[in-house]
Amino acid sequence: MNANFRYGRIIAAVIFFIGVCLMFSSVSFAADTATFAKDVAPILQAKCQECHHTGSMAPMSLGTYEETRPWAKAIRERVITRQMPPWHIDPTVGVQKFKNDMSLTQDQIDTIVRWVDAGAPLGDIKDMPRPREWPNTDEWKATKELGAPDLIVKSEPWTMPAHHQDVWWRRTSDIGLTEPRWVRAVEMRPGSVAGRKITHHAVAYLAQDDPDSLVPGTTDDLRGRSLLMEWAIGKGYDLFRPDTGKLLLPGSKIAWDIHYHAVGEEVRDHVEIGIWLYPKGQEPKYRTYLTGFQAIQGEERFRRVDIPPNSITVSQRVTVLKKAGMLENFQPHMHLRGKAMMVEAILPDGKTEVVSYVGKFNFNWMTNYIYADDAAPMYPKGTMIRVTAWYDNTRANPNNPDPDQWVGFGDRTVDEMGHAWMNVTYVSDEDYNAWAAAHRKQAVADTAAQ
Ligand code: HEC
Question: Which residues contact 209 (CB under 8 A, 6 or more apart)?
Answer without folding.
Answer: 249, 251
